[in-house]
Each structure stands twice: as structure tokens, then as C-alpha cells.
Amino acid sequence: MKTKKSAVKKVVFLASLLAVGLAVVSLVGVGQVFSQTCPQSTTVSGTTGTLVGEITDDGGDSNIQVRFQYGKTTAFGLETPSQTKMGLGLFCADITGLEPNTTYFYRAVATNSGGTSFGETRSFTTKTLDLILRANGSRGPITVNFQELVTLSWTSQNAVSCNASGDWSGSKSFSGSQLVQMNQVQTNTFTLTCTSSSGQQVTDSVQVLVNPKKPTVVTKPAIVTN
After folding, report:
1. Which end of the chain has fewer surrounding CB within 10 Å, N or C?
2. What's the burial of 221, exposed, middle or buried (CB within 10 Å: 0-12/13-18/19+)?
3. Mean pLDDT for the chain overall
């Protein structure tokens, strides 16, 4: 009889372990298991960022679902995917598509079997979409002679595409330079428009005035005949 009771206890104990194991698998399966290496603080560069939070007390249940809420107001409106964070320490999530010159609010969110907690609401402001176009190092207008070479140079910040118009054309890099020969005696206007990931645009132009050169004249040699 003792042997049977012992066997029953073992079965119950194993069943309990199996149930606990299944529960853990189920909880981990709620969100992606967190495995990312995080910076010590939230970082923002251009139109992307990495939001960082930290679990400082697990409340007695170390199986925690973590995420971030963020948006242009304190109502947030956007969330990162839920991840499973086991125990204390940092967690983070990458965000993209941020608009230039815009303030965003964000906070960390953590949930375990005891409930949901919210971190402080913090904010950051992205940098401005910016563009500068120069001709021979000047914002213009500049004056050159017919057929002279002019160096167009430009720099942009937080743009994902740039396109030329006016007296030049085509897709351009976010920053660079290009030699252009002035083959028309006229006022040339070079325009560049750059676009952010959210569709915002910034445009800059520079003018190059082309003067005619002196004509080239040749005195032909004489041919003397009888």
C-alpha cells in the first residue's frame, strides 16, 4: 500500500511539474522572447530610434511582457510589439519612420501575473529636415563665363531621397557634388528637393549667371599668286 501511495504522489508531482512547464511555455509564447543588446539610454538618430526601459523589480513574477507606447502626444497611439523579458534588467525596441523636427512622447510598459505597470512619460525631439545647395561654395547668385565649369555641392539632414530640377535633373545622393559646364548664356537656376521618410520636403536653389566671352578671331595668312 505504501508503494502505491508513493507512486501516486510521484505521478501527481510529475503532473504538477508538467503543468508548470506548459504554463511557462504558454507565457513565453505570448510575445517574442527578448534577446536584444540595449544601450543604456534611449537613442534617436535621424528618423529612427531605440527606446530603452528597465525592470528594477519583478514583483515576484519574473516572466514579464514588455513594450513601449509612443506618439506625438501623451495619448501615444503607437506601440512596439510585446516581448518577453525574464527578470530584471534593460529592455529596448527599435522604432522607425519618425518625422523631422517633431516631438515624440514615450513610456515603457511591463505586465506580469500581478498586473501592468507604466514607466514615466518622457519625450525627445527629432532634428530638422535640412538642405543647403551651393555653387562654387556660395549660396549664390554667382557670375561665371560661358563654358566655365561650376561645382554644385549640397548637404542634407534626415532625408531619404533628393531630386534635382530646373537646369539640372535626376536623382541625387543625400550629400555630394557635381561639375556642370555652363553652355548657355543665361541665368541658370539649379534646384534640389529632398524628402523625409514621412513625406515632408525641403527645397533649396542656387542661381548661376553666365556672361558671354569675347569672340575668338583669327587673321588668316595670305596666299600670294602671280
Report:
1. C
2. exposed
3. 85
Q: Does domain 130-211 have CATH number 2.60.40.10?
A: yes
How do beta strands 149-157 and 130-135 pair?
A: antiparallel
Same topology, domains 30-125 and 130-211? Answer is yes
Q: Where does 30-125 sit in CATH, by number? A: 2.60.40.10
Contact present, 117 and 64 (Cβ < 8 Å): no
In the chain, where the domains are located: 30-125, 130-211
Q: Are 120 and 51 in contact (CB under 8 A)?
A: no
Is 65 within 8 Å of 111 (Cβ atoms)? yes
Write the pLDDT tens digit of every residue in 33-83. Answer: 666 789 999 999 877 899 999 999 999 999 999 999 999 999 999 999 999
